Amino acid sequence: MPTYTLMATAAMGLEAVVANEVKNLGYECQTDNGRVIFQGDESAIARCNMWLRSADRVKIIVGEFKATTFDQLFEATKALPWEQYLPKEAEFPVQGKSVKSTLFSVSDCQAIVKKAIVERLRNKYRIQTWLQETGPLFKIEVSLLKDKATLTIDTSGAGLHRRGYRIAQGGAPLKETLAAALIQLTNWHPDRPFVDPFCGSGTIPIEAALIGQNIAPGFNREFVSEEWHWMGEEVWENARVEAEDVANYNQPLDITGSDIDHRMVDVAQKNAFEAGLADLIQFKQMNVKDFSTSKDYGVIVGNPPYGERLGDRPEVEQMYQEMGQALAGYDTWSVYMLTSHEGFEQFYGKQATKKRKLFNGFIRTDYYQYWGKRPPRQKD
Ligand SMILES: C[S@@+](CC[C@H](N)C(=O)[O-])C[C@H]1O[C@@H](n2cnc3c(N)ncnc32)[C@H](O)[C@@H]1O
Q1: Cβ contact 230:42 at 8 Å
Q2: 132-182 tens-digit pLDDT
């Protein structure tokens, strides 16, 4: 099988989490702003789409080169082996972006790249007329950064956050990819209790259950590269068989999602049912200030309201305070909260063990981490 240069794209701040996932799948990688680069064959494309929990997409890097003129962009694009990827009937829309580059007109760059690929394919396939573009989809992107052009083909289709289980949602749902990253940034282990006291549509508990039973997040969806002749059906079949083989459906889990709004509890339950995980997660209506537990060494992960609108602030601040009081007595529990409210620690009543800057969409947030006592080591 040939080897491709692959790129898993990541939201700002999540590169290290995605890199870790890529390494766990067996691929050495380098990280850069918003991307993790590695080498792999067709099975790597299928496996990474199937398994990466926190990446946005998996793309093939077809070529990278310097371009400060449209001529350079055209010639270097035309010199790339597009026919190795695109059959003669391929549909290939070109998207673009340009940051700090001489070639700043994105629409012109897109048109030039499109023209260069058309010329290349017409030559290689000896086609005199227009290309029909009635076949499988290859979404191409030309991305210019400081005069370096990167040409990629998207292998995912819908973004990897589209796991296929979210049939209903609330006002401010977290992206599934970010939820998975938040969990992987904790010290949670599937044999410990897990609680999301602001579960909304259930994203965090559902992702925790997928992680807890080692279920591939892409198992129940399709990917655009499944339509590509050179990927081969057996590549996808093997990836799905592997996912089925390594899933640990016998792993018992203690995962709870709660929310003050009973309508959100219904929504979360529906989504968990759709994900096939309804039996694994307990959902209930509860105000966070009423949290209590007799268990030890649990992990709480939450995405509370941020109080972004001025009018909501006092209410949210009071709620942070009540949460801090409710959780204060549980020193074996670890608490992780994602919020954009810069005064969170003050209202919660405790300085975080660690803070990590993350973006929830375009909102700059901090992930406040309060580490609980470690469980005692088990004697042999
Ligand atoms: C930003 S949303 C969480 C979204 C969720 N992570 C998702 O993916 O859908 C915040 C949630 O906190 C809930 N909430 C607000 N105040 C609360 C409180 N005092 N106790 C528990 N839940 C509360 C809201 O009803 C809302 O569903």
Answers
A1: yes
A2: 999 999 999 999 999 999 999 999 999 999 999 998 877 788 999 999 999
Dihedral, CA atoms, 172, 175, 180, 182, nearest 10 degrees?
Answer: -50
Q: Using a 6 Å cutoff on CB, does residue 174 contact ligand 1?
A: yes
Altogether, the residues listed in the chain come to a count of 380
* CA 44/CA 34 separation, integer angstroms: 20
Atom of ligand 1 nearest to the CA of 196: 6
CB of 287 sitting under 6 A from ligand 1: yes
Separation of alpha carbons 257 and 201, rounded Å: 9
Ligand 1 lined by 173 (C-beta under 6 Å): yes
**How much is the mean pLDDT over the chain?**
96
Ligand 1 centre to CA of 82 (Å) is: 47
Answer yes or no: is the C-beta of 94 below 6 A from any ligand 1 atom. no
* Distance (Å, whole) CA 110 – CA 142: 7
Instruction: Extract the tokens encoding 35.
Output: 């991307």
Q: Which residues contact 183 (CB under 8 A, 6 or more apart)?
A: 204, 207, 208, 211, 301
If you search the block for the tokens 């017409």, which residue do you land on?
122
Run of H or E residues at 141:
strand 140-145
The pLDDT tens digits of the residues spanning 102-116 come to: 999 999 999 999 999
User: What pTM did the predictor assign?
Assistant: 0.96
Cα 306 to ligand 1 centroid, rounded to whole Å: 10
Report pLDDT for 379.
67
Mean pLDDT of 223-248: 96
